[in-house]
Every structure is written in C-alpha cells, then in structure tokens.
From TrEMBL:
<dbReference type="InterPro" id="IPR016181">
    <property type="entry name" value="Acyl_CoA_acyltransferase"/>
</dbReference>
<protein>
    <submittedName>
        <fullName>GNAT family N-acetyltransferase</fullName>
        <ecNumber>2.3.1.-</ecNumber>
    </submittedName>
</protein>
<dbReference type="InterPro" id="IPR050832">
    <property type="entry name" value="Bact_Acetyltransf"/>
</dbReference>
<dbReference type="InterPro" id="IPR000182">
    <property type="entry name" value="GNAT_dom"/>
</dbReference>
<keyword id="KW-0012">Acyltransferase</keyword>
<keyword id="KW-0808">Transferase</keyword>
<dbReference type="GO" id="GO:0016747">
    <property type="term" value="F:acyltransferase activity, transferring groups other than amino-acyl groups"/>
</dbReference>
<feature type="domain" description="N-acetyltransferase">
    <location>
        <begin position="1"/>
        <end position="150"/>
    </location>
</feature>
<dbReference type="Pfam" id="PF00583">
    <property type="entry name" value="Acetyltransf_1"/>
</dbReference>
Length: 151
C-alpha cells in the first residue's frame, strides 16, 4: 500500500468512497442523501488542502483531507473504503497525516468526528474536546476531537 497525493481525476471516486464509508454505519437513505454535498471532494480541495489517498494495486482504499489554518488544522475528511476496514488502512493514513502535520509545523489537529468514528480517533491518541454542531443537521451534535502535536 502506498499513500500519495490525490490526482484531480480522482475527486469523483473519492466522493463515492466517502459516501460508501459513511453509509457503512447504517445511516438511512434520507440521512445519506442529506450528507452527499458534505461528502463531495471538489477539485478546489487539491490546492487548498493536503489531500492524500491510500492505494494498493491501483485501488483506492481510503483518503484524508487536512485543512491547515496557521499552526492548527482540521481533519476535514478521513474515510476508509468499507472493503478495506480492518486492514490497518485507517491507522496508516492516520500516521501519515500526523507526519505531514508535524512537517507543516501544525501544533493541533481538530476533528469534527462522526459518532461512530470517535473510538478510532481516541485509539489513535485524539481526545474529546467537546461537541460541535453538524453542518448538515443543525440539531445534531458531533464529537469535537483534537490531537496535540507539540509534546
């Protein structure tokens, strides 16, 4: 498996991967359709964010999008294809993201976590810092996670 920069022609495939990954948690069709825009990877993300994909034998297994802001960043997207769950893809992407963040002198990474992913982020060393309102469903609160990279 390699982790590399995303190519412009892959944004649609990554959007589909994100949709499948979110649906893995059993959300109903109406919920998923409401999330579709939020799960769409745009070509503009390639120039404004660090967008990296895990690939093996030409197959995209997962990706992350790190959006830097001064000395902090938001992990805006972090998705693993359901077929690759349990194969250490998430862990490898996470470690790659941390390495990239440190190289960019980012002191803290913030994550607006799906409730189902909170356990993964905690296992990777992130801590819950509170709650944040969903950008899709205003009445829904999401775990706000963070990982400090200064220590």
């Amino acid at each position: 498996m390699i982790i590399r920069a995303v190519r412009p022609e892959e944004t649609e495939a990554l959007s589909d991967l994100a949709f499948r990954s979110k649906a893995y948690w059993g959300y109903d069709e109406a919920f998923m359709e409401a999330c579709r825009k939020e799960l769409t990877i745009l070509p503009a993300h390639l120039s404004s964010c660090h967008l990296r994909a895990a690939e093996q034998d030409g197959v995209l297994l997962g990706f992350y999008r790190l959006s830097p802001r001064e000395h902090e960043a938001e992990l805006a997207d972090f998705f693993v294809d359901p077929a690759a769950i349990g194969r250490q893809v998430g862990k490898k992407l996470w470690l790659h993201m941390l390495e990239l963040a440190r190289a960019q002198q980012i002191a803290r990474v913030w994550i607006h976590s799906d409730p189902h992913a909170e356990g993964f982020y905690a296992k990777m060393g992130a801590v819950r810092a509170g709650d944040v309102r969903s950008t899709v469903f205003p009445d829904r609160e999401l775990p706000l996670m963070k990982i400090d990279l200064t220590g």
